[in-house]
Amino acid sequence: MSTRLPAQLEASAILRLAESQGGFGAVLAKGERDAGTILLVTTCRGQAGQLYERMPQLDGSRIFVATKAENPENPQEFSEYLARRRQQDPDIWLIEVDIADPERFIAQIAALT
Question: How far apart are the first and last CA of the chain?
Answer without folding.
Answer: 16
